[in-house]
Amino acid sequence: MPRRLSVFAGRFRHLRFSSNGPSKATKAAIQQTAKMIGTQPDEDQIHKRMISKLQAEEYSSPLMDRICQRVSIESQVEEQEQEVLQEIAGALRRTEGHLLMACLELEVAGHKADAAAAGGCSKEELKEAVDHFNALIQPTLQRRYEMTVHRQSCGFRTGNYNLMEQLYPIPPPRRPDNSDVEHDQTESARARHRKITSDMISWRISRLTKQEWEVFNSLARLERHQYVRDLLEKDDHEVQSREPVPVPEVKPEDRKPIKVGFSPGRVIL
């Protein structure tokens, strides 16, 4: 049974007709509901056609002006939404362009290093080509990280990191003789670095002051990580700029001898 017919049947399920048949009010309700069973026209389309017809007839009134203003605002909102979507897509395209150019520069530097190694160049020229290749790896990784964050801010979050590594692979660094560093060693070093960084960030978050905690909660989720990293760098700078505390020198005669029968551990405790 179609949905409208089921609604129609459910609406009059409670009615009990007498032997003389339904009353006039019931007949009128049945006829009105039967008209509603057909396809309902879109009221917004009807209103828009009515406004267009009145505008073509140059009809003018204060109420007509208010309605036209509302319709024009809705169309402006739709245009602004489309413009925002186009701007988001354009920003992603520009970020991807920077990443692709960085990957291209890294690829060209790798080919030059391979050519220097195969062409019998001197060790100094080969080392210079390899150093140039290795120097481009970190900026390329930074561009890929920026692209990853940009995609996350646009809502692309599921499997984002794996997808970025598949679409934009970055080769490992090379030794001075142009041989690749073992991939396992590179990945393990990166994993250890990520683990240490994550532990340090968690430790610093647990020691936020009240003011720092308010700033931390006011930031967007993607900005909190960088905020904590800045706090760690600030703490490190303060520790390095702090004057060293002089350690008093203890003369041999001032040292207290350890009593016989006590272990050094018990004496310290």
Shape: extended
Structural class: mainly alpha
Helix share, percent = over 70%
Uncertain residue segments: 14-19, 265-269
Strand runs, count: 0
For the record, give the distance between the C-alpha atoms at the N and C termini, rounded to a whole number. 86 Å
Give a nutshell description of this structure.
The chain has helices at residues 3-11, 24-36, 43-56, 62-118, 123-135, 137-153, 160-167, 183-205, 210-218, 221-241, 264-268.
Write a concise keyword list for the protein shown above.
mainly alpha, extended, disordered C terminus
Question: What topology does this entry show?
Answer:
Blueprint: H1 3-11, H2 24-36, H3 43-56, H4 62-118, H5 123-135, H6 137-153, H7 160-167, H8 183-205, H9 210-218, H10 221-241, H11 264-268
Describe this structure in words.
The chain is mainly alpha-helical. Helix content is 70%, strand content 0%. It contains eleven helices and no strands. The chain has helices at residues 3-11, 24-36, 43-56, 62-118, 123-135, 137-153, 160-167, 183-205, 210-218, 221-241, 264-268. The chain is extended, with a radius of gyration of 37 Å. The protein starts with a helix and ends with a helix.
